[in-house]
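Dear support,

We are seeing what looks like truncated structure output for some complexes. This example has two components. We would appreciate it if you could run it in full and send us the complete token output so we can diff it against ours.
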Amino acid sequence: MIKTYVTGIVLGIVAVFVAAYLVPAVDQHRESSLIAVTPNGGIREAFHINMPMDRIVVGARDAASIVPPGLQWPDDPIVDGIHAELFKLRNANDTVIGVASRVAATGGRVADESVADTTVANEAGANETVEWVLHFPARGSVFVSMQPEAAENGHRVGRIRAGTREFGDLEGRLTERWVGAASERIEGLSGRIELVSQFVGTPGSDADGVHASDGTPGGGRAGSEEAPR
Amino acid sequence: MKYFFVLLLGFATGVVVALALLFFNPIASQRTVSPLEISDNELIVFAYSAVADDTIVYTNDGDSIVRPHPEKVLQLWERPISRTTVFVTMLSDSRTRSAGIGIKFRSDSEDTRLIAGKALADSVWYLHLPGRGSLFVGQRENYWSFLREVVAPAYWSSADHWKGQWFGKLTAGPNALGTGRVSGGSGEFQGLSGEAVETLSATAFSLDVGPVAIDGTLTIELSGASAAGGAPTTDRTYPARPLANGERASF
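Here is the complete output from our reference environment:
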């Protein structure tokens, strides 16, 4: 009788440890990545944000309309000039696959000793920043700094500064574009923000961690003259 | 039949013993001391409140203990993002002055292994410090100690509440010393890299609302140029031209 009881205890302990080892405690839902391979071996992936339904937050002291209702944006002068937005991010199949933030800011100090008068620098728009963070729970995150001024065709281009996990060993660029709703058929849609990423791998980098990309012009392969077009 | 019931009783006992071993696993104890404490480099310390109602915005799938704030914020109910939490908060410096704004994205990690005392989350911080620039922090967090020493006692309490003193280091990687990785974005931080450690200091937790009195601290050490090169420079990646009247770098 005792032997049977002890055998049961051993079986119980083994069952729990085997289950704890084999059964994943977390199983993130994955959507297939819709990626195109570019001639230089890089990858191109398009995302979009349906407006206004994917907009989680619009926060700014001078914003005409605050999202969500009831949001109390800080009444602190330090956030003057910060325009922060959070969005849900969709893939080409219009499925939500991630979350993104976009922060546009003005009024910062330029860390350049040659610019003695920082006010002038600010007036010249030298320190305007537009930065995106794209977060994909099952894949990783990307941090992108955009050029502050939009190109004539309405695009704004940015360079990947850092990435985590799947994006840890990638360099490249991200393009944002506003597309009006004229050609869309979704009710209530005013338009969408289109984000197109073009990444190439960096040989010998650490895919598990955060990889920081060079911030100098031409420092990243995909952002240089060799960039996929 | 008698032996079957004895075996079943033994099995149940074994399950309880195994769960207790997992829970009280002494090998899984986390380091509470940050490796940055002994750093010679200058540290930047940011503090924030981890209480949802103290944040500017806090959102999740809407079914968690912690309720989204404000109430009408869009919830992350879609399956690919349902195990993700996002919040926007004000950051204060070591003198409790407002330092900037922080956005944190946190998702449960598939590398979670309860058998090894790893309740992991992958998270990133975006920090915007007006007048200075922006930083990006990528880290892996381990909530095992928090779950074991704060959340579980709250479940055991008849009042569904925990009160006490708990301090713990959340950051568990990806760096070898258990620190997160920092990348400079713009301004004076452009081209810099470094390490970061996030800690929590809890005094009250409730199963009804989640954190009641919990403060977070993010400590950043900027050690130099990023791995890809590039000393701290002015943001000259793109040609700086004045924005036209009324033109705004946002939608």
